[in-house]
Amino acid sequence: ERVVDGERHTYVLELILAMRRQGWRWTEEYCWHKKNCYPGKWPNRFRDAWERCLHFTRSRRFKMFQDAVRVPMGDWAQSRLRNLSDTDRRRDPSRVGSGFGKNVSNWLGRDTAYPTNVLHLATECANRAHSAAFPEALPAWFMRLFTEPGDVVLDP
Description:
Helices cover 17% and strands 22% of the residues. By secondary structure, it is α+β, with helices and mostly antiparallel strands. The chain has two domains: 1-70 and 116-156, Vaccinia Virus protein VP39 (Rossmann fold, 3-Layer(aba) Sandwich), CATH 3.40.50; 72-113, no CATH class. The strands form four sheets. A three-stranded mixed β-sheet has the order 4-3-9. The longest helix is centred in the first third of the chain and has 11 residues, at 11-21. It is globular.
């Protein structure tokens, strides 16, 4: 996203609304966290350390292979799962009445988990001449998530 006359431009928001008017469904918004964003200083904002990755589909149902992008469990699992309380061993409903709940014991024996919608990837150093130096790992992650072997992927 860019800044024009000291304020953020609204073209991303306008794009989302235009896509919806054309029948596209705004399914998800992923955040690419640039672990090594460009240095800089501006009088009215901080460095851009993230970019939006917008996901649109034509239908409510679409291919998504979440198991293909699972991530290793963090170190937290060993200490957190070592001494489970009675509450941890049963479904503990949310205190706000949302219907959501958790059973921490379901995490026992798991080596991987589903990722968040924040992708922590460094920019590509070999692509310095390009203003949008995204890492090859970024489209590769989306291809693993949404395609099967043999699917056609177009790169405009």
